[in-house]
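Re-run requested by the PI after the first attempt was lost when the workstation crashed. Everything re-entered from the original request form. Ligand of interest: zinc ion.
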Amino acid sequence: MHQKPIEAGSIEVICGSMFCGKTEELLRRLRRAKIANLNVVAFKAKVDNRYSKDKIVSHDRNSLESIAIENSDDLMKLGHEYDVVGIDEAQFFDNSLVLACKNLAKNKTRVIVAGLDNDYRGQPFGPMPLIMCESDYLDKLTAICMQCGKDATYTQRITTDTQQVVIGETNVYEARCRKCFNPPKI
Ligand code: ZN
């Protein structure tokens, strides 16, 4: 999917709620690029240290070596030597992620960004709306609603924490459809 000649840089965005398979899809595309003998690197924000510090790990534990970076400057510095740059959990970066991705794409890099498009309140999450605007290709994946089994586009927090970022899995979050999503009143 979207396997483009390397002469043209591009920005691909894979978004959706938790448990929709964003990381699996990112890993699938990166693996395909590796098979095509391209130089591939994966980055993720340092805040996300569940399971592993030096690998991108999806819920099914398919993993790929990745570099944890502090900010978008590191992305520019480290990313420009590669043909294909993957970024996981992009919602944790600040808005300068967008410029870094645009610069990489101008520099003929294929940039693949995966992240949560909305947070536990159903609000746009970090730089995701901006990077979605800049994307050449955009895929919004759906999870399965844990309440009714329909397609889910929201992430319901099932604890009472009110910070935007609470790292956790099924003990903290559920995928929910529009009907079953019940945003906290804060
Ligand atoms: Zn539902």
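Saved to the shared folder this time. The longest strand covers residues 10-16.
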